[in-house]
Amino acid sequence: MKRFYVTCVSILLSSSIAIGAGFQLNLQGVRQLAMGGSGTAYPWDISVIFYNPACISDMDGWQAYASLIVLMPNVQYTSGTYSTRTQAQVFYPFNVYVGGPLKSNKRIGIGLGIYTPFGSGIKWDNDWTGRYVTTSSNLEAIYFQPTASYKINDIFSVGAGLIYAYGNVDVQSAIPVQSQQGGTYPASELSGNANGFGYNIGLHAKPLKWLQLGLTYRSSVEMKVSNGNASFTDIPASIADMFPAGTKFNTSLPLPQVISFGVAVNATEKLVIQADVNYVGWNVIDSLKFDFTNHTQLLTDDHTPRHYQNTLAVRLGVHYQLTDKWALMAGGAYDPTPVTDGFVSPDLPDANRTVLTGGISFKLNHKLNIMGAFEYVTTAKRDASFDYAGLTGTYQTKALSPCIGASYNF
Prior knowledge:
It contains 3 helices and 21 strands. By secondary structure, it is mainly β. The chain has one domain: Porin, CATH 2.40.160.60.
């Protein structure tokens, strides 16, 4: 029986945190979101601090920008005749930017971006069939990025930013012991704050009046959790000493590097067509390690394989200037999953995603612009397994993300 406990608790504690494309948010600018998440090549607004830092020097002047996204994911799980859905949750990623070229030397641009490139969550019913793997999982990472750019000449600009990332993680699951009473389950919760450093560099080129190109690199960020809290509730008295109060844990959550190449074409005076290709280095997540400050027969350090693979996402968008004040945007994307067969965990039941987007902008006056957009994400049904925990089933994910934003020109 003790061996059974050790196996289950190891699975419980080591499989609780997963990071994948489902947690990656391509929502850092309203216009760009409305165009399938593309935006590496065209300096639409000061959100280029994220999309391509080289473009700050290409702005006409200083600008402040803010946007708020309402993220509403939903996952369905089916196994034989059993079927369930995740509980309704709403998340609020946000983006704030300010910057522009210096008045004293317009070839030099500076700015600061605060944005949410990773974040979401999932919550299952406490008694669902996969409760011993996870009942809920929440992850958020906020990037602070001071940035500078330099316009080399009328064609080329370069830029770079330093990233400080701060985030938090909270994951919960039931513990498989046999003394369940009153419909409740002994449970574990791992929570903690994380931080790390990275950088963002970019190159922008406008070789022709109607053609713009962009190339960026966002580095991997190692999010380190130190002295996170491991808490246990409703533990039977007979094994309570195996789950000591005040237990801490350390782990690292690697966030992937991203290489983006973009093309933007002024097809007509009013129509811009743009496309991005994102190469995402998910293979940085090969395994997850958990080190606990207290150890017992049932609570030991663990090392869980993940074996994520790199992916190539394709994004396409169009922007049509309807009038001097109104503009329409539309787009789409195909974003493949990095999670390989045998490693699909219910805390991140990832699959290839199809993305449809659209939006509108209104220029209130020569200083203030208001934008609105939506993103709809759906996956095909995926027959998947998490071999480490022996859980199999079919998952399908859908998410709707409306957003609103505004920019102000100084």
